Amino acid sequence: MFAVIKTGGKQFRVAANDKITAAKIEGNPGDTVAFGSVLMLTEGEKTTLDAKALSDITVVGEIVEQARGEKVIAFKKRRRQNSKRKRGFRAELTVIRITDILTGGKKPEMKKGDASAVALKAASTATKGKAAPKAAKAAAATEGLDASNLSLISGVGPTIEKKLRAAGIASWNDIAAWTEADIAKWDEELKLRGRATREEWVEQAKELLAGKPPRAKADQAELASGEDY
After folding, report:
1. Family, per the entry (predicted)?
2. Same domain, 86 and 160
3. 114 in any annotated domain
4. Residue 84 sits in which domain range?
5. Which of 52, 108, 122, 163 is the most exposed place for a label (fewest CB within 10 A)?
């Protein structure tokens, strides 16, 4: 049995005991993570592609280690301008060992520790129905939304989203963890012109992780045009 899952904007073909290296997921070695975004399941000669059937499937893994990718050097020189710039970048990665593929709506037993946003979402889904009406309504607001969908943050258009992903920023969790120093750093390196502060990206990311609806409705015209204003 194997499944195809999506995390950090990438797809992975996984089976029990496989190891994958994905975009950083918050957590410590030994923490359990659950992936609810399953695109395909193959069991013997039977392949499932139906979205409704796949919604009852959860891929469970365990964080092996937090790692970093190889250094990438970006060197820029302007001829006859006495201008040179050299920058290095290493992507933050997480090595995960797949432990099980649960079918039939079964939910994983989450180990104690700092679980990832994906794991927390799976845990909240498992307790759905026991929550208070207000909490259930908040969870429904972001149910089915992918934490790697940066465009749900108001002010992040297609062009800026490409810049963020190229810099290794692949989920709401990454932005929610920004400090003032991080904001200043990315504002300068990615030429955001103060948008992160002005549009309150960190607050928006925390709201999305908390289950609140996205503020990005006002940006639909911008997303449709494919330009950043």
Report:
1. Belongs to the bacterial ribosomal protein bL21 family.
2. no
3. no
4. 1-103
5. 52
3-state helix, strand, coil in the chain (%, to 5): 30, 30, 40
Query: 167-216, pLDDT tens digit by residue?
Result: 888 888 889 889 988 888 888 888 888 888 988 889 888 888 887 888 75
Burial class (CB in 10 A: 0-12, 13-18, 19+), 83: exposed
Cα 222 from chain centroid?
22
CA 95 to chain centre: 15
For residue 75, tell me if it sits in a domain.
Answer: yes
Q: Which two tokens stand for residue 213?
A: 């609806």
Q: Which residue has the tokens 């948008």?
A: 195
Q: pTM to 2 decimals?
A: 0.47
pLDDT digits (tens, 9 = 90+) for 47-75: 999 888 888 999 999 999 999 999 999 99
Give whole-number Cα distances, 225 to 67, 152, 157, 173, 228, in Å: 37, 16, 10, 27, 9
Q: Provide the number of structural domains found in the chain.
A: 2
